[in-house]
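---------- Forwarded message ----------

FYI, see the PHD finger protein ALFIN-LIKE record below. Original note from H. follows.
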Amino acid sequence: MAMGSSPRTVEAIFKDYTARRAAILRALTYDVDEFYGICDPEKENLCLYGHPNESWEVSLPAEEVPPELPEPALGINFARDGMNRKDWLSLVAVHSDCWLLSVAFYLGARLNHNERKRLFSMINEMPTVFEVVAERKPLNEKPSAAESGSKAKGSTKRSSDGQVKSIQKPAADESSEDEEDEHGDTQCGSCGGNYNADEFWIGCDICERWYHGKCVRITPAKAESIKHYKCPSCSMKRGRP
Protein backbone atom coordinates (compact mmCIF):
# COMPACT_ATOMS: atom_id res chain seq x y z
CA MET A 1 0.00 0.00 0.00
CA ALA A 2 1.55 3.28 -1.07
CA MET A 3 1.32 6.21 1.32
CA GLY A 4 -0.43 8.20 -1.36
CA SER A 5 -3.40 5.81 -1.40
CA SER A 6 -3.42 4.96 2.31
CA PRO A 7 -5.95 6.28 4.86
CA ARG A 8 -5.06 9.83 5.89
CA THR A 9 -7.77 11.06 8.27
CA VAL A 10 -8.19 9.97 11.88
CA GLU A 11 -11.51 8.35 11.04
CA ALA A 12 -10.15 6.48 8.02
CA ILE A 13 -7.11 5.23 9.94
CA PHE A 14 -9.30 4.13 12.85
CA LYS A 15 -11.58 2.28 10.44
CA ASP A 16 -8.52 0.52 9.00
CA TYR A 17 -7.36 -0.34 12.53
CA THR A 18 -10.71 -1.79 13.62
CA ALA A 19 -10.99 -3.90 10.46
CA ARG A 20 -7.50 -5.35 10.88
CA ARG A 21 -8.17 -5.90 14.58
CA ALA A 22 -11.43 -7.73 13.85
CA ALA A 23 -9.55 -10.00 11.43
CA ILE A 24 -6.88 -10.82 14.02
CA LEU A 25 -9.52 -11.51 16.66
CA ARG A 26 -11.36 -13.84 14.29
CA ALA A 27 -8.15 -15.80 13.72
CA LEU A 28 -7.48 -16.09 17.46
CA THR A 29 -11.05 -16.90 18.53
CA TYR A 30 -13.67 -18.11 16.07
CA ASP A 31 -11.16 -19.52 13.54
CA VAL A 32 -8.61 -20.53 16.18
CA ASP A 33 -8.48 -24.22 15.24
CA GLU A 34 -7.75 -23.38 11.62
CA PHE A 35 -5.19 -20.76 12.66
CA TYR A 36 -3.50 -23.18 15.08
CA GLY A 37 -3.22 -25.84 12.40
CA ILE A 38 -1.69 -23.48 9.85
CA CYS A 39 1.04 -22.35 12.26
CA ASP A 40 3.10 -25.53 11.86
CA PRO A 41 6.52 -25.13 13.56
CA GLU A 42 8.05 -27.13 10.72
CA LYS A 43 7.22 -24.38 8.25
CA GLU A 44 9.28 -21.28 7.60
CA ASN A 45 8.91 -17.99 9.50
CA LEU A 46 5.21 -17.18 9.47
CA CYS A 47 3.37 -13.95 10.23
CA LEU A 48 -0.27 -13.26 11.10
CA TYR A 49 -1.78 -10.47 9.00
CA GLY A 50 -5.13 -8.73 9.44
CA HIS A 51 -6.42 -7.05 6.29
CA PRO A 52 -8.69 -3.99 5.87
CA ASN A 53 -11.46 -6.24 4.51
CA GLU A 54 -11.51 -8.06 7.90
CA SER A 55 -9.89 -11.21 6.53
CA TRP A 56 -6.80 -12.75 8.14
CA GLU A 57 -3.84 -14.51 6.61
CA VAL A 58 -0.87 -16.51 7.85
CA SER A 59 2.01 -16.23 5.40
CA LEU A 60 5.66 -15.47 4.92
CA PRO A 61 6.79 -11.86 5.49
CA ALA A 62 6.95 -9.37 2.66
CA GLU A 63 10.03 -9.74 0.47
CA GLU A 64 10.47 -6.07 -0.41
CA VAL A 65 12.73 -3.97 1.79
CA PRO A 66 11.57 -1.74 3.30
CA PRO A 67 8.00 -3.15 3.29
CA GLU A 68 5.03 -0.98 2.36
CA LEU A 69 3.67 -1.30 5.91
CA PRO A 70 5.26 -2.33 9.22
CA GLU A 71 5.51 -6.12 9.39
CA PRO A 72 3.94 -8.26 12.15
CA ALA A 73 6.01 -10.50 14.44
CA LEU A 74 8.08 -13.00 12.50
CA GLY A 75 8.09 -16.73 13.25
CA ILE A 76 4.99 -16.97 15.44
CA ASN A 77 4.74 -20.65 14.50
CA PHE A 78 8.08 -21.68 16.05
CA ALA A 79 6.90 -21.47 19.67
CA ARG A 80 3.54 -23.16 19.10
CA ASP A 81 4.38 -26.66 20.32
CA GLY A 82 6.69 -25.50 23.09
CA MET A 83 4.00 -23.58 24.97
CA ASN A 84 0.59 -24.12 26.47
CA ARG A 85 -1.94 -23.40 23.70
CA LYS A 86 -3.63 -20.54 25.54
CA ASP A 87 -0.30 -18.97 26.50
CA TRP A 88 0.87 -19.18 22.89
CA LEU A 89 -2.31 -17.56 21.60
CA SER A 90 -1.90 -14.82 24.20
CA LEU A 91 1.66 -14.24 23.03
CA VAL A 92 0.50 -13.96 19.43
CA ALA A 93 -2.18 -11.53 20.63
CA VAL A 94 0.39 -9.28 22.33
CA HIS A 95 2.53 -9.16 19.19
CA SER A 96 -0.59 -8.48 17.13
CA ASP A 97 -1.52 -5.51 19.32
CA CYS A 98 1.95 -4.06 18.75
CA TRP A 99 1.61 -4.55 15.02
CA LEU A 100 -1.85 -2.98 14.85
CA LEU A 101 -0.61 0.13 16.67
CA SER A 102 2.48 0.37 14.50
CA VAL A 103 0.38 0.22 11.32
CA ALA A 104 -2.07 2.82 12.65
CA PHE A 105 0.63 5.32 13.55
CA TYR A 106 2.58 4.61 10.39
CA LEU A 107 -0.53 5.58 8.45
CA GLY A 108 -0.95 8.55 10.77
CA ALA A 109 2.56 9.88 10.21
CA ARG A 110 1.17 13.13 8.79
CA LEU A 111 -1.35 13.72 11.58
CA ASN A 112 -0.77 16.63 13.91
CA HIS A 113 -0.45 16.39 17.69
CA ASN A 114 -4.16 16.67 18.44
CA GLU A 115 -5.10 14.22 15.68
CA ARG A 116 -2.61 11.62 16.94
CA LYS A 117 -3.96 12.07 20.44
CA ARG A 118 -7.53 11.59 19.22
CA LEU A 119 -6.56 8.51 17.22
CA PHE A 120 -4.91 6.90 20.24
CA SER A 121 -7.90 7.79 22.41
CA MET A 122 -10.27 6.09 19.96
CA ILE A 123 -8.06 3.00 19.83
CA ASN A 124 -7.65 2.95 23.60
CA GLU A 125 -11.42 2.80 24.10
CA MET A 126 -11.39 -0.72 22.64
CA PRO A 127 -10.08 -3.81 24.47
CA THR A 128 -6.73 -4.96 23.17
CA VAL A 129 -6.51 -8.24 21.27
CA PHE A 130 -4.59 -9.65 24.23
CA GLU A 131 -7.30 -8.62 26.70
CA VAL A 132 -9.95 -10.38 24.61
CA VAL A 133 -7.94 -13.53 23.93
CA ALA A 134 -6.63 -13.84 27.50
CA GLU A 135 -10.07 -12.88 28.87
CA ARG A 136 -8.56 -10.19 31.08
CA LYS A 137 -10.87 -7.43 29.90
CA PRO A 138 -14.09 -7.37 31.94
CA LEU A 139 -17.00 -7.27 29.53
CA ASN A 140 -20.53 -6.25 30.37
CA GLU A 141 -22.78 -8.99 31.59
CA LYS A 142 -25.79 -9.99 29.58
CA PRO A 143 -28.79 -7.79 30.52
CA SER A 144 -31.30 -9.33 32.88
CA ALA A 145 -34.67 -10.49 31.67
CA ALA A 146 -36.22 -7.27 32.95
CA GLU A 147 -33.75 -5.17 30.99
CA SER A 148 -33.77 -7.23 27.83
CA GLY A 149 -37.29 -6.19 26.93
CA SER A 150 -35.81 -2.98 25.53
CA LYS A 151 -32.83 -4.65 23.84
CA ALA A 152 -31.96 -3.64 20.32
CA LYS A 153 -33.47 -4.52 17.00
CA GLY A 154 -32.20 -7.90 15.96
CA SER A 155 -30.86 -8.77 19.42
CA THR A 156 -31.80 -12.02 21.09
CA LYS A 157 -32.75 -13.13 24.57
CA ARG A 158 -33.75 -16.41 26.05
CA SER A 159 -36.92 -17.17 27.96
CA SER A 160 -37.05 -19.44 30.99
CA ASP A 161 -37.44 -22.45 28.71
CA GLY A 162 -34.15 -21.63 26.99
CA GLN A 163 -35.67 -20.75 23.63
CA VAL A 164 -33.98 -18.01 21.67
CA LYS A 165 -36.31 -15.14 20.90
CA SER A 166 -35.74 -12.07 18.82
CA ILE A 167 -36.51 -8.66 20.24
CA GLN A 168 -37.72 -5.87 18.03
CA LYS A 169 -36.38 -2.34 18.15
CA PRO A 170 -38.73 0.07 19.94
CA ALA A 171 -40.82 2.07 17.50
CA ALA A 172 -40.36 5.41 19.25
CA ASP A 173 -37.17 7.30 18.54
CA GLU A 174 -36.97 8.40 22.17
CA SER A 175 -37.08 4.79 23.35
CA SER A 176 -34.34 3.94 20.88
CA GLU A 177 -32.16 6.72 22.24
CA ASP A 178 -32.72 5.49 25.80
CA GLU A 179 -31.76 2.04 24.53
CA GLU A 180 -28.44 3.31 23.21
CA ASP A 181 -27.71 5.08 26.50
CA GLU A 182 -28.50 1.98 28.54
CA HIS A 183 -26.47 -0.53 26.54
CA GLY A 184 -24.03 1.72 24.72
CA ASP A 185 -21.03 0.42 26.73
CA THR A 186 -21.74 -3.24 25.93
CA GLN A 187 -18.91 -4.64 23.81
CA CYS A 188 -18.76 -7.56 21.41
CA GLY A 189 -16.80 -10.47 22.89
CA SER A 190 -15.17 -11.10 19.52
CA CYS A 191 -14.28 -7.78 17.91
CA GLY A 192 -14.69 -5.52 20.96
CA GLY A 193 -16.97 -3.18 19.04
CA ASN A 194 -19.53 -1.14 20.97
CA TYR A 195 -23.24 -1.84 21.05
CA ASN A 196 -25.30 -0.53 18.14
CA ALA A 197 -29.08 -0.75 18.21
CA ASP A 198 -29.21 -1.35 14.45
CA GLU A 199 -27.12 -4.52 14.56
CA PHE A 200 -28.03 -8.10 15.43
CA TRP A 201 -26.47 -9.41 18.65
CA ILE A 202 -26.56 -12.78 20.42
CA GLY A 203 -25.59 -13.66 24.00
CA CYS A 204 -23.67 -16.75 25.16
CA ASP A 205 -25.54 -18.85 27.73
CA ILE A 206 -22.26 -20.02 29.30
CA CYS A 207 -20.10 -16.91 29.78
CA GLU A 208 -22.95 -14.40 29.27
CA ARG A 209 -20.99 -12.29 26.83
CA TRP A 210 -22.63 -10.60 23.88
CA TYR A 211 -21.49 -10.92 20.27
CA HIS A 212 -22.29 -9.35 16.91
CA GLY A 213 -24.14 -12.00 14.93
CA LYS A 214 -21.77 -11.37 12.02
CA CYS A 215 -18.71 -11.99 14.22
CA VAL A 216 -19.89 -15.48 15.19
CA ARG A 217 -21.72 -16.17 11.91
CA ILE A 218 -25.18 -16.36 13.48
CA THR A 219 -28.13 -14.82 11.63
CA PRO A 220 -31.46 -13.89 13.25
CA ALA A 221 -33.09 -16.80 11.42
CA LYS A 222 -30.47 -19.25 12.64
CA ALA A 223 -30.74 -17.91 16.19
CA GLU A 224 -34.40 -18.87 16.30
CA SER A 225 -33.46 -22.57 16.13
CA ILE A 226 -30.76 -22.39 18.82
CA LYS A 227 -31.94 -23.38 22.30
CA HIS A 228 -28.70 -22.68 24.13
CA TYR A 229 -26.03 -20.64 22.36
CA LYS A 230 -22.38 -21.37 23.18
CA CYS A 231 -19.81 -18.87 21.90
CA PRO A 232 -16.58 -19.97 20.16
CA SER A 233 -14.46 -19.47 23.31
CA CYS A 234 -16.75 -21.60 25.45
CA SER A 235 -17.02 -24.21 22.70
CA MET A 236 -13.22 -24.58 22.76
CA LYS A 237 -13.18 -24.99 26.51
CA ARG A 238 -16.03 -27.47 26.78
CA GLY A 239 -15.85 -29.23 23.44
CA ARG A 240 -17.92 -28.65 20.35
CA PRO A 241 -21.63 -29.46 20.78
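H. also flagged this: The chain has nine helices and six strands.
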